[in-house]
């Protein structure tokens, strides 16, 4: 069975490909955080998710198979 990742249970390879594309990474990043109930983290991703967080998401997806989680609120 494939190792599941952050973007709605997709495999980590598919999630990595989606994380590399800036627009999909931005949209799926804040959708993931809002679906987890982390409203503040979703708003932060909505505002800042297209630059530093995008690069961190790629690094975290390669190393830990999860997106970067700066806030847990």
Report what the structure shows.
This protein has 73 residues and is an all-alpha fold. Helices cover 63% and strands 0% of the residues. The protein contains four helices and no strands. It has helices spanning 12-20, 22-35, 39-48, 52-64.
The helix content, as a percent range, equals: 55-70%
Number of helices: 4
Mean pLDDT: 86
Biggest sheet features = none
Shape: globular
Query: What is the string of SSEs from the N terminus onward?
Result: HHHH
Fold blueprint:
Layout: H1 12-20, H2 22-35, H3 39-48, H4 52-64
Summed up:
This protein is mainly α. Helix content is 63%, strand content 0%.
Q: What are its keywords?
A:
73 residues; mainly alpha; globular; single chain; 63% helix
């Amino acid at each position: 069975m494939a190792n599941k990742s952050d973007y709605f249970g997709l495999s980590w390879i598919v999630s990595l490909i989606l994380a590399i594309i800036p627009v999909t990474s931005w949209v799926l990043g804040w959708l993931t955080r809002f679906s987890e109930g982390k409203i503040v983290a979703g708003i932060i991703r909505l505002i800042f998710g297209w630059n530093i967080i995008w690069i961190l998401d790629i690094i975290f997806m390669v190393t830990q198979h999860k997106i970067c989680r700066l806030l847990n609120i």
